[in-house]
Amino acid sequence: MNLDKVLIVGCGNMGGAMLQGWLAGGVAPGRITVADPRMAEAPAGVMLVREVPVADFDVVLLGVKPQLLDAVAPQVAPAIGQGTILLSILAGVELATLATRFPDAKGIVRVMPNLAAAIGRSPLALSGQGLDQAGRDAVTALLEPLGTPEWLASEDLFDAVTALAGCGPAFVYRYIDALAAGATALGVPRDQAQRLALATAEGSALLAASSEHGPGELARRVASPGGSTQAGLDVLDADQALVRLVEAAMTAAERRSAEMGRDARGG
Ligand SMILES: NC(=O)C1=CN([C@@H]2O[C@H](COP(=O)(O)OP(=O)(O)OC[C@H]3O[C@@H](n4cnc5c(N)ncnc54)[C@H](O)[C@@H]3O)[C@@H](O)[C@H]2O)C=CC1
Ligand SMILES: O=C(O)[C@@H]1CCC=N1
């Protein structure tokens, strides 16, 4: 299946990261049209329009805020022909909700990426309807320049995966800031603490990604028995303090996604 012509509707932080990732990954700019009333300018070779054109696209990527679904749907519907696959990155908004707004789409796929799509390093969780295996393979191939697409066993996992893959970078950035703030409190100059915290996070993530060992074992290898790392881990692990805090944050994020999905259902 040839997914040649792509329309991005709403090219802000996340749509823009996907556009950047596709171009960096070698997708020809002439294949992509962007419809966005506020985007200042598009990268060279990408067509930027202010209103959704009436034309046949192989793929339409919906990249607006979930709350705008009903305002945007009537404008987008004419760009969706019988052969068009709709991709939606809207947090919370379910396949069934999208199907009522875009009944003509050949297939509908929810995608949960994150901002690392811009550098080809995003997880991309997928759940879809209406596509055969060839259609799913074509979607997977289209998304591969952005990172690591993987299909979920069930759409029911989508809000949980949104909390992890979609929101996750913000949680990781907070942790990096917390490392820097911790060092600053111990007297390290703020800018130096920030540099060291970022380099520590970057090196640790790269090592974990290339290691045969999981994060638990890697942490064990950092911590000499009776040493300083163990003293710090004892604080994070006491009463599962860190795990409980992160679980609470992810539960809040998951609930908010589900709430946005319910709001969109009613529209
Ligand atoms: N920001 C992130 O890290 C992630 C965001 N998402 C999802 O991506 C979607 C967009 O989020 P952001 O990029 O953060 O928001 P954003 O506000 O940065 O981007 C939204 C874009 O939609 C455009 N827009 C507004 N009205 C429009 C219309 N009528 N037609 C076409 N374009 C229109 C805006 O000009 C803007 O460029 C949301 O549904 C969100 O749930 C999903 C995963 C991660
Ligand atoms: O905050 C949000 O609602 C979106 C979904 C995942 C990341 N950003």
Short synopsis of the structure:
The protein has 267 residues and is an alpha/beta fold.
What does it look like?
This protein has 267 residues and is of the alpha/beta class. It has 2 domains: 147 residues, Rossmann fold (3-Layer(aba) Sandwich); 91 residues, ProC C-terminal domain-like (ProC C-terminal domain-like fold), CATH 1.10.3730. It contains 10 helices and 8 strands. Helix 3 links the parallel strand 5 and strand 6. Helix 5 crosses helix 10 and helix 6 crosses helix 7. The longest helix has 26 residues. It is elongated. It binds 1,4-dihydronicotinamide adenine dinucleotide and (2S)-3,4-dihydro-2H-pyrrole-2-carboxylic acid. The site of (2S)-3,4-dihydro-2H-pyrrole-2-carboxylic acid has 4 residues, from helix 5. It catalyses: L-proline + NADP(+) = (S)-1-pyrroline-5-carboxylate + NADPH + 2 H(+); L-proline + NAD(+) = (S)-1-pyrroline-5-carboxylate + NADH + 2 H(+).
Count of helical segments? 10
Which oligomeric form is depicted?
single chain
Residue-averaged pLDDT: 97
Main sheet: strand order? 3-2-1-4-5-6-7-8
**Using DSSP, what is the number of strands?**
8
Work out the strand percent: 5-15%
State Rg.
21 Å
- The figure for the number of domains is 2
Shape: elongated
Low-confidence stretches: none
CATH fold title of the largest domain: Rossmann fold
CATH architecture of the largest domain: 3-Layer(aba) Sandwich
Please give the largest β-sheet.
Answer: 8 strands, mixed
Structural class: alpha/beta
CATH class of the largest domain: Alpha Beta
Ligands = 1,4-dihydronicotinamide adenine dinucleotide, (2S)-3,4-dihydro-2H-pyrrole-2-carboxylic acid
